[in-house]
Design goal:
mainly alpha, 11 helices, 2 strands
Length: 305
């Protein structure tokens, strides 16, 4: 019971971080119809800026603010300089251009911070443990990541559902031509949405810094999982991204923890040791295939799609 609870929390923690990545990605694709492979680079940039700022200042909150500010500025600059020329281009052109950005940013962080990975310490005020069950301490920082992710998800929902900007974002996702015809500055809206997506990715990267290694190329693996999340949830759906991210995170955590022992109960330990990790890494893709077989548009496709 203790192990199951711990893995559920690990899955929820990983899931909310995937949601922060997938939310920005699904907003950008849903409104701009833009495939942005460089979204993982913004996650990486947030982690690097947060780690460097935290090492220099000792303030975790300042590191978060620096990561968000840097990501917003970087995201707006990328949208203005690069992506405005790609909106009317084919998806293949967008993929090639954003893949080039991945290579550029990976080399850029090596030039600035070197090829050696950075390690970000857990802030002192979150360095303890919380005893969930008797004799079962759980890291306070991971609980804080879950809480922060849920709070951001709630604020993002309120922004999209209850504000005028959110109304324009939803309208742009449904019918961009009509929004443009009504006199809305679609160019500025696109820049705002891209900056918002960049901030969400950077926040995920900054929160991941004390858990994972901060290194060049760290955004690529997370980007693949973010695409899995938005496909499962329904492209353009924030609610779908949230549910799918938690589902993917929990399935991944539970599979990596319990699949090998489960296989060892009815096959040799050597076979289970080989097959368990391989099957665990495939579980989320099997999950995606099963869901798309039943619901080709995802769990919660947005209206009008």
């Amino acid at each position: 019971m203790t192990a199951v609870l711990e893995q559920l929390l690990n899955g929820a923690q990983f899931g909310v971080m995937l949601f922060l990545m997938a939310a920005g990605l699904t907003l950008i694709f849903g409104i701009m119809n833009l495939i942005n492979l460089a979204h993982g680079s913004l996650y990486m940039a947030g982690a690097y800026v947060a780690a460097a700022t935290f090492a220099a200042s000792g303030s975790f909150l300042l590191a978060l603010l620096a990561a968000l500010a840097a990501a917003v500025a970087l995201g707006a600059a990328i949208e203005i300089v690069v992506f405005r020329t790609l909106y009317d281009r084919e998806h293949l052109d967008q993929v090639l251009a954003t893949f080039g950005l991945i290579l550029f940013f990976n080399e850029l962080v090596r030039m600035i911070w070197g090829a050696t990975a950075l390690y970000m310490q857990v802030p002192a005020f979150l360095a303890g443990h919380v005893e969930l069950l008797s004799g079962s301490p759980y890291p306070t920082y991971r609980l804080a990541v879950i809480g922060a992710g849920l709070a951001v998800a709630l604020l993002l929902h309120l922004l999209i559902a209850r504000t005028r900007i959110g109304m324009l974002i939803r309208a742009g996702a449904s019918n961009r031509a009509m929004v443009d015809a009504l006199g809305v500055n679609v160019t500025m809206l696109y820049t705002l949405v891209f900056a918002l997506g960049a901030a969400l990715a950077a926040f995920a990267g900054a929160m991941a810094g004390p858990i994972f290694t901060v290194e060049s190329g760290m955004g690529e693996s997370v980007l693949i999982l973010a695409f899995v999340v938005i496909v499962i949830g329904g492209i353009g759906s924030l609610r779908g991204a949230f549910v799918a991210a938690l589902l993917v995170g929990i399935v991944d955590a539970m599979g990596r923890a319990f699949l090998r022992p489960l296989l060892a109960s009815f096959m040799s330990h050597a076979t289970a040791d080989n097959a368990g990790p391989a099957l665990a890494s495939m579980l989320i893709y099997i999950l995606m295939a099963a869901i798309l077989l039943i619901r080709p548009q995802g769990l919660f496709p947005p209206r009008g799609r």
